Amino acid sequence: MKILEELARKTRKRVVGLMSGTSVDGIDAALLELKGHGSASRVRVLAFETVPFPRALRDRILRSSLPGGGSVDELCFLNVLLAHRYADAVRRISRKSRIPLAKIDLIGSHGQTVHHLPRARRMYGASVRSTLQIGDPSTIAQLTGITTVGNFRTGDMAAGGQGAPLVPYVDYLLFRSRSKSRLLLNLGGIANFTYLPANCPASAVVAFDTGPANMVIDALMMALFGKKYDRGGRTGMGGSVLPALLRWMLAHPYFSRRPPKSTGREIFGEHYVQELLRRSRNAAPRDIVATASAFTALSVYDQFVRFVRPDGIVDEVYVSGGGVHNVAVMGRLEQYFAPALVRPFEALGWSSDAKEAVCFAVLAHETVLGRPGTLPQVTGAHRPVVLGTISIPS
Length: 394
What we know:
By secondary structure, the protein is α/β, with parallel strands linked by helices. The chain folds into 2 domains: 2-163 and 354-391, 2-Layer Sandwich (Nucleotidyltransferase, domain 5), CATH 3.30.420; 167-339, 2-Layer Sandwich (Nucleotidyltransferase, domain 5). The chain has 15 helices and 12 strands. β4 and β5 form a beta hairpin. The longest helix has 26 residues, at 72-97. It is globular.
């Protein structure tokens, strides 16, 4: 189509990346100037903003993410409502940067995951993997007048993959080092890392979801203290770790499963937290949160030791996502990974909070150029695939 041909010919593009994660805190919007493609990509962040979700909307999304919790009509309305919220976020980042919408070339919107089922199930003769991200990209395109890429995960799943994690491809493009082996750790609702051996080819990248990061801590803070999250990690720092509870958490079968693997609220959501609270009902609330904080850090290190360290070392650990602000988690990561340096993503000159939004902007750009945006050894797909669906405004 003509609009895509013109977009592909532009050597310099302005692209907005939109991300709302499993913590359902709000929408991260990053506006980039992007030149080149693939390993020649050059990115400059022009503006970034987080637009919080109202608490009532967050609660509705979380309820709809539970099995049996989201009716068909509720999900239909939320799918379009979130598209309106994403379009509003694009308008806000446009105003903040003083770049008109008409001067923005492309949007990459991850959408809001409400369910992720990466393990294949046989149904009526077909092997089915499924995931659902709401926030309709066609609606975003029509509301903003900007070509929008969304539904990034399903194509990889159709090719036999888990549909996750997708960020490692961009990690490889932008953050590999010739001399240092790096672990790029994202602490969102779910924790995931990308291991980039020094001077590595794309085929040597290792990445997967290591387990929950903020998801369990946030749920405990709401249940025990009526707060959305543990600000700065102060509650986790003020308690003592409960050894028996920590052992139970680390014994979950997900941690022994070999990569490729991905996870989400389906495994570590409300049912998991309710069982955790049942097992710790006589413990002090601060100790429960302290244990969950220790669990987040230790599960990351455990997965590194099991599935990465046998084949490689790490010199530097760079942390992004909301968990980078939790001193209880960060302090333990520093202990476990020593002598490797553990630093916020800002040490690379990038915003910790903006990283995933940046990644989906880059992935959208690769898509409109017809270029694959996956690493098959990471997702488990049979082949690299071009990600997402492209919605063109009229």
